[in-house]
Design a protein that fits this description.
about 160 residues; 5 helices; rod-shaped; transmembrane helix; membrane
């Protein structure tokens, strides 16, 4: 009986080994077929890329030139905006280190002549200049500046 079991075990082992060999051969065939298909597809893609290579290069060069020009334009716009902001800030908050020339106000009257001229001192000139450039508007700034200095000019400006 032991011989019978040994023969059965040997036959079973040979059968399993043969089956495994057949499966291994089929796997090897399928894997090589898959590898050949992948290689063929990659070769086709590479051939198309190589044939389109000059067009791709031209497209990339055009795109890079466009991006460089766009970045230069945006950079110039940003620098211009910063410079203008700085100028406005300096103009509104500047303190004059040199003597400010006085402002002479001469307003026309109804008969075509000019009213008596009024010369403003340096602090009044500064207040008037800052008032002219404020967001309140020119007429309001002039009226508030002149209310305290000259009633006649105030009356003329309020009628305008």
């Amino acid at each position: 009986m032991s011989k019978y079991v040994n023969d059965l075990g040997t036959r079973l082992f040979h059968s399993v080994a043969n089956r495994a060999g057949d499966l291994g051969e089929k796997f090897e065939e399928e894997f090589s077929y898959l590898a050949q298909n992948v290689t063929r597809d990659v070769t086709v893609i590479v051939d198309e890329a190589v044939s389109l290579s000059p067009y791709i290069k031209v497209g990339l060069v055009c795109a890079s030139i466009f991006l460089v020009l766009l970045s230069i334009r945006l950079l110039a716009y940003g620098i211009r905006a910063l410079v203008n902001k700085r100028r406005r800030h300096m103009w509104m908050n500047c303190e004059y280190s040199e003597h400010t020339p006085p402002i002479i106000l001469m307003l026309p009257t109804d008969d075509g002549t000019y009213s008596q001229s009024r010369m403003l001192s340096e602090p009044e000139s500064r207040r008037l200049l800052k008032g002219l450039h404020s967001a309140d508007g020119q007429k309001t700034a002039l009226l508030t500046q002149l209310q305290t200095t000259d009633k006649h000019l105030h009356n003329v400006l309020s009628n305008v």
